[in-house]
Amino acid sequence: MGTKAKVSFWVWKFESDSINRTYPMQVSEEAIVTRVQSLVQSGLSRVPPQYIQPLHARPLHHAPPGSDSDSDSDSDSVPVIDLSLFDPTARASSLDAIARACRDWGAFHVTNHGVPPSLLAAVRRAGLQFFSDCPLPDKLRYACSPSAASEGYGSKLLATSDGDTASHVLDWRDYFDHHTLPLSRRNPNRWPDFPSDYRDTVATYSDEMKLLAQKLLALISESLGLPPSCIEDAVGEFYQNITISYYPPCPQPDLTLGFQSHSDIGAITLLIQDDVGGLQILKDRHNWVTVHPFSDAILVLLADQTEIITNGKYRSCVHRAITNPDRARLSVATFHDPAKTVKISPASELIDESSPAKYRDVVYGDYVSSWYTKGPEGKRNIDALVLDS
């Protein structure tokens, strides 16, 4: 992403099993960032200050009257779309269901999606074995640099920017990011070889997710009355990353987030999680709804570039991950993004005198740089592209 910069973060000094003190320092990109799993294994009982969210962002922050931060009612359940129903007799109603989900939620579960349940289980199992059973020195062989969007094993995702306290707060998670598509980016030698089927499992999963993402973008396009290829043509060749996130148990879950509130920057994200749960979606701008684990289903999250292409008719999904005091959680997110040179703009078919363009054009690489340096903070990056009406 251009010139490499110094990044600033807190370094923890350990003595025996306890944290002695903290001190800020400047380190190069090659320095190793403290892993959250290591902090937990040290036996700490309080969350270090750099992981404590500001009051307004904490998961137990008081919601507006009448809202519910974790509702189980049917009206506050993420929609479920059965892809087997897309036959000629039910296609119109199924497309209507996708349109409602994209308009009201920016997210939906898909079932009968064609991805073998055994593969979903295998990729979850491979990720869990890497984080749970692989010794830290072996994990660190695959450590990524603290720079934004680098491949490998890491903990700190965002580059640090000045003047924004929230962007300095760290998420309570470790992760492994895989560059999987196009094939010129895919190098399984950079991925763990433990367990023994890890690399083959991730590669196979990548190929299946690409096919599903193409199918879903075609259906989303059709639900707007657009040609099936419209959104995929605007995105171009997929740049796909697969991120396996591991959220260790947290001694003070009311102070932290596993992943801060954000919408994804690309076109479409496909996510699976284990049975622990912890993913939340922001509904109607103030209501955090917990996405309960749904066996063998895949969660579809619309991302920012799709919001731009659909001219705001469909909104990208704001979501976050909360932490658990007792159990570790694992999720696998597959991101499908444009190349950094692609210019994204609203689809011409959706613009006329009565419905002018709502977003200015943006080169995707510029959008990525803004997201990683300023931090996500909900949808502030895409909101910066909104044209004055």
From TrEMBL:
Keywords: Iron, Metal-binding, Oxidoreductase, Vitamin C. Residues 237-338 form the Fe2OG dioxygenase domain. Belongs to the iron/ascorbate-dependent oxidoreductase family. GO terms for molecular function: L-ascorbic acid binding; metal ion binding; oxidoreductase activity. This is Fe2OG dioxygenase domain-containing protein. The keyword Acetylation does not apply. PROSITE patterns: FE2OG_OXY. The keyword Iron applies. InterPro entries: DIOX_N, IPNS-like_FE2OG_OXY, IPNS-like_sf, Oxoglu/Fe-dep_dioxygenase_dom, Plant_2OG-oxidoreductases. Residues 57-76 are annotated as: Disordered.
